[in-house]
Amino acid sequence: MEFWVELVASILLVTGAIFAFIGSLGLAKLPDFYTRLHSPTKATTLGMGCLLIASMILATYWQGYLSVHELLITLFLLITAPVTAYMLAKTAMHHKLQILEKTTDKYLAKRAAERMAPQHIESDH
Amino acid sequence: MQTKPRFRFLPSPLHSLLLFAVWLLLNNTLAPGHLVLAAFLALTIPLLTSGMQDPHPKFHKPFLALRYILRVLGDIVVANFEVAILVIGPSKKLNPAFIAVPLSITHDLPITLLASTVSLTPGTVSAEISEDNKWLYVHALNLTDKEALIALIKQRYEKPLMEIFECSI
User: Alpha-carbon distance A60 to A66, whole Å?
Assistant: First the structure.
């Protein structure tokens, strides 16, 4: 029994670590600010999720009662991650950070910074 | 603007339930003392804060909401794998794009939920919303088909949210 619990927990820990690492790798590797924004908001969420589930399983097994407060961490993470991404994107647009050259519809960033509706310029298609 | 609550001493039953659950989760216990304390907090905090709340559309279909949450959780896992693969793969192949998604839902709460869902799920991050709340600006990491992505966001996420909150179209 103990072997199987530990096996599942270790698999989850390793998977979580890999995803968290990929999230950080994306920060270093992706070409511009906006693409970099994606890896910590997504890859890290699943990484943290796996680590927290592993923690739940181990704590429940060792302590002998159900340990669920890790669910709260997941909840807070799911609430805060999009808000952080949104604030960062907003700041980036106001600072007019350089956008990767091949990005489609770059003009939308300018419209978005002014919070205007997009003009329907269909010329760039 | 304040809508009259259904029960005077329980202005927002859902918030009370949430507070009750969060308190018990925080303490990781079901001890009787904490049950009483949780009930006390769940009853008093909404009473004290009910005056500060903005009016928002009523929450209608709890089962649909539950299904929506499960679907989003599943999609988060899928999106995580997709983004992880994109991050590992060569950056030259990426096709990042800005997209403006026309919104049909109204009211702040549903729009916030939609924007958060979009940030967490299909390879996109919501960046800004237009002043008239009619356009959601989204940055996609790897865009293949713009119309398909807009249709996906509208069909898969916006429509259930509209039904849950019964927003006017």
Answer: 5
